[in-house]
Amino acid sequence: MILIDNLKFGYSEQQILSISRMEIKESEHLLILGNSGSGKTTLLHILGGLLSPKAGKVLIGETDLYGLSGSQRDKYRGQNIGLVFQKAHLISALSVQDNLLLTQYLSGTAQDKGRVHEVLTELNLGDKMTKKVRQLSQGEQQRVTIARALLNRPRVILADEPTASLDDHNAEVVLNMLKAQAEKYQASLIIATHDQRVKDQFDLQLNLHAL
Amino acid sequence: MNLFSLSWNYIKSKPLNTVLNVLLMSLGIAIILVLLLLNSQLEENLGKNKRGIDLVVGAKGSPLQLILANVYHIDFPTGNIKLKEAKTLVRNRLIKSAIPLALGDNYRGFRIVGTNHDYVNLYQGEVEAGEMWKNNLDVTLGANVAKRLSLKVGDEFFGAHGMSVSDLEHDEASYHVIGILAASGSVLDNLILTNIESVWQVHDHEEEEGEEEHEHGEEPVLGSAYKTGFPEGDEDAEITSMLVQFRSAMGAVQLPRMINANTNMQAASPAFETQRLFSLLGVGVNMIRSFAYIIIIISGLSIFISLYNSLKDRKYDLAIMRSLGASRSKLFVHVIIEGVIITLLGGLFGFVLGHALVEILAGYYEKSEEVGITGLVFVNQELIVLLLSIGVGIVSALLPAFSAYRTDISKVLAQD
């Protein structure tokens, strides 16, 4: 599903990241571990098409992510990759529903309120549709970002420290949701974290060390 | 959800900022519109009323006053000229036609003008009710006069001496309304027209008080020149002025000099004097206009600053939007739209405000109706003003939009 081939990344002379070959199959989950500064976020951004590597290829299915033009890559990301971040970066000027409609609009898929409602209900947010983002709790906001990531039925879900700013209970809820949803959509789930609470739940783990 | 409603939601989320920017913009636009409306209407009406008049000949004094009094009927006359001299002048081969005017009286603020039918034809005036005056002391009213004073054909009234309402009435001879003109948008609308002899007659009464009072109510006397030309008058007969049309361009060169140098009369060109009036007014108008442009520039600056500041808080939003599939150019357009919405709102609000202001001003000053000022008229240049407001929005949003365009998603998102 995801194939990393001879990937290199670094700033000027300094090499930060180097992965010769790695494959993640469909429905497989990967945990990227490592201390801060080890390049977890960098790798995740490269996988998400947010950051161009210095050398190497990232293939998602048949698509060579960095063979696409900038705007093609933006579009591809919008339609095939779901991103979840440590903080719930939602558009605070909009309601929960509008945040998700915006996601559909920006990715170029049809705006479908039914689908929005469906995803929100799956994540127990059905009653928060018309609420402003600011009126939600931290955990709820993070759940909305998961809803946002799942909205376009992505093939890959990338989560960067999704549990770091949540308490134990919410962390577990969010993690279970991510796993359950990834399974439901048969998407590959890749989580970058240094959160000990997450570690035991994944078989496939990649440990990054600062080079 | 689309870029427009996205921008709109951002604007709504900062109401105070938005109100300030919209107000500034609308103020600038409103001032420019007021000037534009006043200027264009004044110019149009002044132009319309001086059409067909090449030269005004009257008593010596201020040439501008001569024009304002005899063409536009807003100033006091400079004095009178001898009928005999005027008649002599008209024989000059450079003069194609001349319309005599006798001013001096009013009825409740509306001027009574002694003249002939040529004067009505000059402005393409048409009779709406009754007929044109023929007999002395018969009058035909301008549309506005009839409306405002609720006069109708068959009514009688006494004129008052002078040009303003409070003056003494001539209660010896009454005018008889015989016709009403259709509204023409020219000075005719605000005038009471009659024979020059009527004006003389009313004034003679005053001088020979009592003696000829028995003549009242006698057979109406047909005016000696109600259709065209000059009336027959005695040695002392006077008129206020005459409106001259040249036979050829040569007249413009020779006549004014000849009249001003060789006669007791003065010649003034309406075209030249209104030009002079506008250049006098122009200084003030230009200053106010510059002031308005400064306000617009400040509003543009204020929009720029608030967009720029808000984009600092919104860099995560922008990065997220990029990560959700928005292209760089989409974010660029998103920010531009935000600027344009604010200035367009300001422009539209200013548009309403400007027209309302002119309409209120027009209602407040009675004179403005005579000059034909109204806020309910739209001129083409207003579209340019609206375009200007869109332009200001684009320009002030350009830099913030460009920085949105250049958002480095990975860098911003890694900064958690």
Quick structural summary:
Chain A is an alpha/beta fold.
What does this molecule look like?
The complex is a heterodimer of chains A (211) and B (416). Chain A is of the alpha/beta class. Chain A has a single domain (22-49, 67-207), classed as Rossmann fold. In chain A, 46% of the residues are buried. Chain A is 36% helix and 25% strand. Chain A has seven helices and nine strands. In chain A, helix 2 (70-80) crosses helix 3 (96-107), helix 4 crosses helix 5 and helix 5 runs parallel beside helix 6 (168-185). In chain A, the strands form two sheets. A five-stranded parallel beta sheet of chain A has the order 6-7-8-3-9, sandwiched between helices. By secondary structure, chain B is α+β, with helices and mostly antiparallel strands. Chain B has two domains: 3-46 and 282-414, no CATH class; 55-268, no CATH class. Helix content of chain B is 55%, strand content 16%. Chain B has helices at residues 3-12, 15-50, 63-70, 83-90, 117-122, 143-149, 196-207, 250-262, 270-313, 315-323, 328-364, 366-371, 381-405, 409-414; strands at residues 55-59, 81-82, 95-107, 110-114, 127-130, 138-141, 156-161, 169-181, 191-194, 238-239, 241-246, 265-268. In chain B, a hairpin with a 2-residue loop joins strand 3 and strand 4 (110-114). In chain B, helix 2 (15-50) runs antiparallel to helix 13 (381-405). The chains are: A alpha/beta (211), B alpha+beta (416). Chain A binds chain B through residues 41-42, 45, 48, 50-51, 70-71, 74-75, 77-79, 83, 85-87, 89-94, 98, 101-108, 111, 148, 160-161, and chain B through 1-2, 5-6, 9-10, 12-13, 316-317, 319-330, 409-410, 413-414, 416.
